[in-house]
Design a protein that fits this description.
The chain is an alpha+beta fold. It contains five helices and six strands; from the N terminus they run ααβββαβαββα.
Length: about 170
């Protein structure tokens, strides 16, 4: 993800998470830590291109994901896929990228929060080996929705999208 992706990311963010969408400032802040020798973030976007090819600016942003690393702990900050991409494996590909980044950051564990009512995402995380470890009451505001906290130990050994398709 680069600065020019923020506007289309925000459009998708507001479509998918209308009550608790991130602001442009939040994405700018995260991207400020995503480049250079002391980077602690990994943010990616997924684009869908028309059949005519990958001409500059012709792709439609269909997903994005972000990870923050601190010491030996990583935290999945966000994963989103456009509704028309649900069931295509895009979420798994985005999560695979984040887990590779966690390994590159030499993180021993990866944490995330997911809405308790988002069973689709919970099932994805469970497929990758994440386990529930607790709740954060009222985490998602203003809707006052609880978050399920999940943890993956040893992201280098995670059941990623590519390892599942090869085995």
């Amino acid at each position: 993800m680069r600065w020019w992706d923020i506007e289309p990311v925000l459009e998708l963010e507001h479509e998918l998470f209308p009550e608790d969408a991130w602001s442009a400032g939040m994405f700018w802040s995260e991207l400020a830590h995503a480049r250079g020798p002391h980077a602690t973030r990994r943010y990616v976007v997924a684009e869908q291109f028309p059949d005519s090819g990958r001409a500059a600016g012709s792709g439609r942003l269909v997903g994005y994901a972000g990870l923050a690393a601190a010491g030996d702990l990583a935290d999945v900050q966000t994963i989103a896929a456009a509704r028309d991409q649900w069931g295509t494996g895009l979420g798994a590909r985005l999560l695979t990228d984040l887990l590779r980044a966690a390994t590159a950051f030499e993180c021993a564990e990866v944490l995330l929060e997911v809405r308790v009512d988002n069973t689709r995402a919970q099932k994805l995380y469970e497929r990758f080996g994440f386990e529930p470890i607790g709740f954060r009451r009222g985490y998602y505001q203003p809707g006052n929705v609880d978050a399920l906290v999940m943890r993956l130990t040893d992201p280098a050994q995670a059941r990623t999208e590519s390892s599942e398709s090869n085995g």
